[in-house]
């Protein structure tokens, strides 16, 4: 395992740009943390963003303590590889619907009418955007 203060490598970005689930943990919760699977996107600024409801428990916890981490792992059948990005997280009121639409296209086949309807339901709801600003990046490759 290696840890780099805050830098994402080209190999890290390659993994993060794939349609994989991330497992998000936020500070201030029960011990041990309770990770949740999430869709995510790495940005041009090397931050990690995702969307969630504005009144969720994770948002309330992040408003008290902005620390969070996301872990992404290669799927079964590939060589073992994972990446953890931890840092201060901001709750942004803008951009969540555009992010949701991009992520739905990344994770779902939107030509499927059922998935297109699912996306319409998502876009009809209120969302905020969570942005993790990397402070610690840990990785493992075998």
UniProtKB/TrEMBL annotation:
Give TM segment ranges: none
* InterPro entries named in the record: Pyridox_Oxase_N, Split_barrel_FMN-bd
Task: Show where the Pyridoxamine 5'-phosphate oxidase N-terminal domain sits.
Answer: 12-115
Q: SUPFAM superfamilies under this entry?
A: FMN-binding split barrel (SSF50475)
Q: Which Gene3D superfamilies match?
A: Electron Transport, Fmn-binding Protein, Chain A
Q: What is this protein called?
A: Pyridoxamine 5'-phosphate oxidase family protein
Species assigned in the record: Streptomyces pathocidini
